C-alpha cells in the first residue's frame, strides 16, 4: 500500500500575499482522493519527531533558538517565513512525516510525504523556506538505526540542495546528487557529491537525457540501499522562481525515471515534495499529483 504523510498542520497560515503556496498541501490530497489514485487509508498523520533525531542532524544551539523563537531578525529573514510557534511545530511534524514515510518505504518499496524536501536547512541555520532538513534527518535516522548502510539523495528541485550538501559533506555513507538551475538560488552553492548545474530554459529532452546519463551509472557505482527523492516541481517552465523550461509531461517523465530506477534495482524510495511556485495552483498540483500516480502505477 502506498503510504502518504499528511497533516492539517502542513497548511499553517501565512500572511496574505506570501509567495509560498501553502494551499497546495490541502488541494493535492483532495485531488488524489477525488480521482481515485488513493483512498483515505493511504494517508497517515505524523506526530512530532523526537528531539534526539533532530539533534542528530542539527546543532543544539540552533534547535534551541528555533524552539524558543529567539532567532535574530536576520536569521528569520533568511528562512523566508515569519517565525512562530505554530510554524516550528509544523516543521517538526514534517520531519516525522519523512521518517515514518521512510519506514513505510522499507516495508512497501515506496512512500511519500506531501510536504518535506526542506533541503536548504543547514546544520546550524534555516534558509529558503526551510527550518529543519527532513532529508538529512531521515537519512541519519536510517543510518543510526542500521536500516540502511548507504543512502542516495536524488534532489531534482530547481534549487541546489545546499543544506543537505553541507550536512553530509564528510559522510561517505550518503551520496548527495543535486541537479539544479546553475544561475538560480542559492547563488553561492555548496559542494554536493554530484552537482549538475543546468542552463536557463533547458527543455524536456535535454533535461531527461542528462538525468538518464547520470542516474543509472550513479546507482550502479554507489549501490545505495535506500533513495530519498526530492521531487520539486519548480522545474516547470511556468514556475515564477524556477527559470527552467520543463513541461508538465517532462516533469512526469523525470519522476518516472527516478521511480522506475528504484523499482528496477529493488531500492526502497521515500519521495518528498519540495518546491513549486507556478502562477496557477492547478499546474503545481497536477505536477505533484503525477508523482503519486506513478508511485501507484509502478509499485502497486
Automatic annotation (TrEMBL):
Pfam families hit by this protein: Hist_deacetyl
Recorded superkingdom: Bacteria
Keyword Flavoprotein among record annotations: no
Gene3D superfamilies cross-referenced by the UniProt entry: Histone deacetylase domain (3.40.800.20)
Annotated signal peptide: none
Annotated ranges, domain Histone deacetylase: 18-290
UniProt keyword annotation of Signal present: no
InterPro entries xrefs: HDAC_classIV (IPR044150), HDACs (IPR000286), His_deacetylse_dom (IPR023801), His_deacetylse_dom_sf (IPR037138), Ureohydrolase_dom_sf (IPR023696)
Classification via SUPFAM superfamilies: Arginase/deacetylase
Keyword annotations: Hydrolase
Family, similarity comment: Belongs to the histone deacetylase family.
PANTHER family xrefs: HISTONE DEACETYLASE 12, HISTONE DEACETYLASE HDAC1-RELATED
Identification of the protein by name: Histone deacetylase
Species assigned in the record: Shivajiella indica
Lineage: Bacteria, Pseudomonadati, Bacteroidota, Cytophagia, Cytophagales
